[in-house]
Specification:
Radius of gyration: 18 Å
Largest sheet: 6 strands, antiparallel, barrel
Distance between the termini: 24 Å
Number of helices: 2
Number of strands: 14
Strand content: over 45%
Order of helices and strands: EEEHEEEEEEEEEEEH
Amino acid sequence: MSLPALNTPVMLRIPDREALSARVVYSGPGWLDVELHHAPVTSLGFLERHWVFMEYVDPAGLVRIMGQLCLSPQAPLMGPPLLRFTHREVVQLLRARKHAGGIVHARVTLLAVGSDEVAHATETVAVGSAEFAVRDLPGAVEDDVYDFTIWPGGNEPAVTGRARVSRIAAKGHVVLDYVMVAEFERERLGRLLIAREA
């Protein structure tokens, strides 16, 4: 297991507060500068006084390191927030890379690609690392492609991507294969499954 390389997408978890998506833009001995995709709700003063976790995917699977955040000396006056993550260089494996799945109920919206209709809101009935199933999807036909947004709940940010209908299952459930979604996001959905089973 290794530290994240430049441009690696990461998730910063502030325990009992929020999760922030970011990417690594600079690195040095014992620190990483990360560019946040949006400003944190938690104050910078709180972040500087508490430990946070950085999660990312490496060849071993989903991993995390512990550290502290502060404003980066290279932070611009305008633009996305740039924070410095000072870490302990101890990488912890959260979930080994493997294909797993199971029952997960989360809110999801699906919109047919190229459609100007309103997105259909439903619920997942199963989530895996290669596919997910939803309770219902009126008018779905095999090979139809949908843009989706899954809200895992809690402080977890939404996962967005594109999926293709692979089959219509029992009870009207619809199974969709991931077509376009970041590998990191698939791993995060898999971690959600493990957390709910624990």
